[in-house]
Amino acid sequence: MRSLIDILDFSVSELDELIAVAEDIMETPEKYNEKCKNKKLATLFFEPSTRTRLSFEAAMIELGGNVIGFSEASSSSASKGESMADTAKIISCYADIMAIRHPLEGAPLVASNNATVPVINAGDGGHNHPTQTLADLLTIHRKMGRLNNLTVGFCGDLLYGRTVHSLISALSRYEGIKVVLISPGELKLPDYVKEEVLEKCNMEFIETESLEDAIGKLDILYMTRIQRERFADIEQYERLKDSYVLDVEKMKHAKEKMAVLHPLPRVNEISVEVDSDPRACYFEQALCGKFIRMALILKLLSEKDYKKENKDVVTDEFICKNDRCITTVEQELKQAFKKTDKGTYRCIYCDREV
Ligand code: NCD
């Protein structure tokens, strides 16, 4: 059985294959409209969502399948204290595949360790969001005709922006990627992404606080919203929320062929006048999300006999200190830490270093 928890679960050739299938579905959708006949997708959304949940549901319906699920934690037995492990076992009785969004980091991994059907991570806390990355890769591929030799700027909340973490991981698989990290000092990319992805893969990167200084060098500008719901201190959010606004004036300094992406929802970080600029790709990106999720559902349902190899050295001799990690609430879950190349340990659920 195959799940998608982290974008690095897929190799480059698998990513390329998903993009090719999604592009074929865009060309000839009628070929696919019965591929999931009699199959059910469960969408388990413990956190708000518009695009991710509805694009998953639209994807399954366009494949001829059916959808069950819930869109808020309060309408599930989690509100009665049911564990993620039990929820995953139960949903496996009713659905052929499930997509989970959860505020706790590592929740989809716990689900996949307990489910008997494929599990898709539809966003876990401020950690990862691999299916948004698939949508991002498809959009970049369509706009630029390639996924290598690109200078990609990430702007906004790089600390809590899970889509940023997953997209940087995916890009580490491609040649000639330069990364420009644009954020306020307090919202810089987490160390685990910097150390485990950028540095480990020898990716060229720079950090800056200025969008104005960076914009002219970029092939892709990936804007993000400041993630209000992840701040412990709301005053800090208020201070940082308007850090960046991409407007027509700033776009004048960008390359003629630059593509602006945003996972959406936007709050005010892209002014609406930019929407009519041909370089604005974020609405097309949302459409790409549906097609690539169709390709993903087909892939996971076709790999029933897949066995995951785990080469990590794992120990349970520490306690994870991240209060957004699933291990802090899931009573029966054993702590588990993997050894890094530096000899330190990181929680396997949330990647926080001990
Ligand atoms: C993103 C998310 O949920 O992480 N949205 C999405 O899935 N398209 C980005 C965000 O909420 O800012």
For the structure shown, list the relevant keywords.
single chain, 354 residues, alpha/beta, Rossmann fold, SH3 type barrels, 3 domains, five-stranded parallel beta sheet, four-stranded parallel beta sheet, 11 helices, globular, binds N-carbamoyl-L-aspartate
The gist of it:
The chain has 11 helices and 12 strands. The protein has helices at residues 12-27, 51-62, 84-94, 107-114, 130-144, 162-171, 191-199, 211-214, 234-240, 248-251, 282-302; strands spanning 40-45, 66-70, 97-102, 119-124, 150-155, 177-182, 204-208, 220-223, 259-261, 314-315, 337-339, 345-347.
Per the CATH scheme, the topology name of the largest domain is Rossmann fold
Which residue ranges are poorly predicted, with pLDDT under 50 across at least 5 consecutive positions?
Answer: none
What is the tally of beta strands?
12
- Radius of gyration, in angstroms, nearest whole number: 20 Å
CATH architecture of the largest domain: 3-Layer(aba) Sandwich
Helicity range:
25-40%
**How would a crystallographer describe the biggest sheet?**
5 strands, parallel
Q: CA-to-CA gap between the ends?
A: 31 Å
Count of domains: 3
Describe this structure in words.
The chain has 354 residues and is an alpha/beta fold. The protein folds into three domains: 139 residues, Aspartate/ornithine carbamoyltransferase (Rossmann fold), CATH 3.40.50.1370; 155 residues, 3-Layer(aba) Sandwich (Rossmann fold); 42 residues, SH3 type barrels (Roll), CATH 2.30.30. It is built from eleven helices and twelve strands. Strands 7-6-5-8-9 form a five-stranded parallel sheet. Helix 1 crosses helix 5, helix 2 packs across helix 11 and helix 3 crosses helix 4. The radius of gyration is 20 Å and the shape is globular.
